[in-house]
Fold this sequence. Notes:
It is built from six helices and 18 strands. The chain is of the alpha/beta class.
Amino acid sequence: xxxxxxxxxxxxxxxxxxxxxxxxxxxxxxxxxxxxxxxxxxxxxxxxxxxxxxxxxxxxxxxxxxxxxxxxxxxxxxxxxxxxxxxxxxxxxxxxxxxxxxxxxxxxxxxxxxxxxxxxxxxxxxxxxxxxxxxxxxxxxxxxxxxxxxxxxxxxxxxxxxxxxxxxxxxxxxxxxxxxxxxxxxxxxxxxxxxxxxxxxxxxxxxxxxxxxxxxxxxxxxxxxxxxxxxxxxxxxxxxxxxxxxxxxxxxxxxxxxxxxxxxxxxxxxxxxxxxxxxxxxxxxxxxxxx
Length: 291
């Protein structure tokens, strides 16, 4: 068992609850002979004045940490997963609200769960990420997402015609308000609200979901995770909005071509034996309850 010594803290600095618990958390680390590392975004915030901690100045420092606390919500967890890139440092998600699919630990259980981690009483759950390579006329942009990629005509509110291929096989021309490519992790996010299926995290797959399809024959489809999705556009005379994890935005020209595959690395989540994915579904979504 690896002895826990260094812990990183990544947090939503916009939340009052984050600043309320941070001083006590740092004191707890000190009492347990643990070294805390705060991101520069936290340290440079005026509210951090007087707090003593080491800082995370570059992404390469993530490698030196035994695990990282994500203090916020699922959105905070998503931004951390992208910042880590291919660094395999585990994340413990603490939800500052009620409960999340990624930030699974609620605030009232914070120190109980931290004690479990220090004692080695936890397990690692791997989550796949997807990569989008956007081929523009003069350059290539790469984006990574843990939840999903979304394509939409944005403010024009016009129908988007999206030509989709999977492993060089033509799937169809989706005529809809937009298109979502999601991971199993993202299947409970935007894809679900657009009528996509719930796919458990252990299923190696990607989900293609049109939003507000303009024909009843356009349905979501689940494909193997090893597939390559190629996307192009037709009948588009305006710019197309591309969104990664609901947080990163880019504007695409209709001539752009996009290739989407899963990455060759994954995100490591710290989980516990007494947590249950389906229990989270029931709590968060009223799963299985009558209207």
